[in-house]
């Protein structure tokens, strides 16, 4: 099927568990490198509210803002949430450009989505001087955001699997800004020498990735996925 992507078992991002203390997080990861955190929160209650049936019942008629999946020019399109789920939430067409690929990530209306987010348990760590903001998304198999960077944050997978590719700020990845992550993985990634490959890993439900400030990253949803990010601004 178009957009169906096998999982890559290799993971080059360091992992930590619930024994990681806040002081060690600040010392080892907060300002220097990404880390995958497992078992630091329990979001089973939030996950139960994020099934297709529950979300359609709660938010079906409300508009959601879709964004294009390219790096520098985000076109926005507003559609009812139900229309997105029933007609646009499809596997990524490998031949489509990022500017022609729309999906739902971020741009959440907190008046409408706020009651859902109240049930989310965010990661317990913060960067001093920042405050958190949520970004909730749902996307089809093979979709994703191509390489970009911004401030630090966490991203948790609620349903599905999500593959991440990361480069430090001083290593700009080779990519075309209007090429989808799936196309980059198929065409560019295989040509990269080992030393030029990104850090990468596939996240499963309940796992949280932390990425530091200004780290380049691209994402690829291996399944129809539900995910939520906590941006530290």
From TrEMBL:
A GO CC term attached to the entry: nucleus
Residue ranges constituting the JmjC domain according to the UniProt record: 99-233
GO molecular function per UniProt: cis-regulatory region sequence-specific DNA binding
PROSITE patterns per UniProt: JMJC
Alphabetical list of Pfam families matching this protein: Cupin_8
Signal peptide: none
PANTHER family: ARGININE DEMETHYLASE AND LYSYL-HYDROXYLASE JMJD, JMJC DOMAIN-CONTAINING PROTEIN 8
The protein's name in its UniProt record: JMJD8 protein
Source organism per UniProt: Falcunculus frontatus (Eastern shriketit)
């Amino acid at each position: 099927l178009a957009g169906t992507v096998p999982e890559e078992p290799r993971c080059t991002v360091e992992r930590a568990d619930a024994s990681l203390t806040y002081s060690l997080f600040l010392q080892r990861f907060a300002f220097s490198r990404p880390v995958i955190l497992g078992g630091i929160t329990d979001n089973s209650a939030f996950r139960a509210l994020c099934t297709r049936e529950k979300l359609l019942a709660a938010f079906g008629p409300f508009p959601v803002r879709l964004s294009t999946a390219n790096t520098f020019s985000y076109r926005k399109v507003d559609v009812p949430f139900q229309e997105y789920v029933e007609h646009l939430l499809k596997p990524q067409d490998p031949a489509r450009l990022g500017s022609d690929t729309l999906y739902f990530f971020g741009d959440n209306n907190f008046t409408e989505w706020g009651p859902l987010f109240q049930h989310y348990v965010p990661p317990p760590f913060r960067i001093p001087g920042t405050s958190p903001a949520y970004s909730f998304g749902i996307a089809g198999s093979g979709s994703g955001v191509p390489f970009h960077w911004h401030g630090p944050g966490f991203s948790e997978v609620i349903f599905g699997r999500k593959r991440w590719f990361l480069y430090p700020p001083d290593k700009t990845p080779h990519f075309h800004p209007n090429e989808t992550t799936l196309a980059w993985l198929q065409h560019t990634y295989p040509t990269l020498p080992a030393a030029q490959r990104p850090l990468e890993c596939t996240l499963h439900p309940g796992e949280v990735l932390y990425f530091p400030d200004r780290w380049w990253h691209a994402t690829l949803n291996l399944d129809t996925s539900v995910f939520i990010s906590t941006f530290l601004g």
